[in-house]
Amino acid sequence: MMTTILSGLSDGALYAVVGLLLTIPLVRTGDFNFAQPAYIVLGEYLLVSLDNHHWSIIPILIVLLALGGVLGGAQEVVLLRPTRGRDTALVTMLGLFIAIQGFVLAWWGPNPESASFFGGSSTIHILGGVLQPVDLWLIGIAVVAAAVLHYAVRRTRWGVLGRASMTDEVGAGLRGVNVPRLRTAAFVLAGALSAAVAVFIAPATGINSDNALTLVVFAFAAMAIGGTGSFGGTLLGGLAIGLVYSFAERYLTADWAQILPFVILCIVLVIRPTGIFGVRRLRLV
Which run of H or of E encompasses 124? Predict the structure, then answer.
């Protein structure tokens, strides 16, 4: 039983982490960055390549942070900013998603890869259950990231300016807020962290070019259940999905494990369209 719970928390933390990363640009621009999980997969394959060349973890993290930040900033400046207001943002991000997927397949091929975890692989026993070090790291990262991002949005100058620009972009601009820079910074931050988190996700899930689609689907479900725009809600939504999946996989079948989280998603959205802790003013485009 405890192993099932820990496995569910680990899987849920993974979906929550991806959901939190998707929420960063969402709360600053109102856009759901469909292409962002592709940064994670790109980071996973680059991780393997650098690890095969005997790079240590710190230089790998620096490279992934830099690559993700550049890609995120370029996406906002080159692709999204010129098309803002034309209702084509989702199509543009979907196109980038497909382009990154195509690049990964062309450069590394379709064969799955695996990555070792820098924190070791010795089994950890907790309250009679077992999990791997990477699982414990993912749970910790999800909780800490949700708390830090919630605090940053609610209590810091960055958060205040961001909320002002989302509430009244014109008014914020007239008061001296550089709204385009805030948007770009959000995409840079989310892109950098998305590529870097590959060092934790790759050892947990394995590396496959199809991972991006799985991650974006389950992360979106976590966001929708917990509340779009809420970092704490996304954390709880991700953990809930992970636990439902784990228990369904153990006591029912793998098919039910794939279905039940989305049945719960539909029920939650019927009862509360914005999710449990949702922010009504946000829109997904």
Answer: strand 124-126
SS3 273: coil
Note the pLDDT tens digit of each residue in 132-144: 999 999 999 999 9
Q: What is the DSSP string of 83-94?
A: GTTTT-HHHHHH
Q: Which residues contact 224 (CB under 8 A, 6 or more apart)?
A: 237, 265, 268, 269, 275
Cβ neighbours around 26 below 10 Å, total: 25
Contact 188, 73 (CB under 8 A): yes
Q: What is the pLDDT of residues 179-214, one digit of tens each?
A: 888 889 999 999 999 999 999 999 999 999 888 988
Question: The pTM is what?
Answer: 0.90
Say how many C-beta atoms besides its own lie within 10 A of residue 24's C-beta.
Answer: 27
Burial class, 251, CB count within 10 angstroms (exposed 0-12 / middle 13-18 / buried 19+): exposed
Instruction: Report whether 203 contacts 131 (CB < 8 A).
Output: no
Amino acid at the residue 20:
L
What distance in Å separates the CA atoms of residue 190 and residue 192, rounded to the nearest whole number?
6
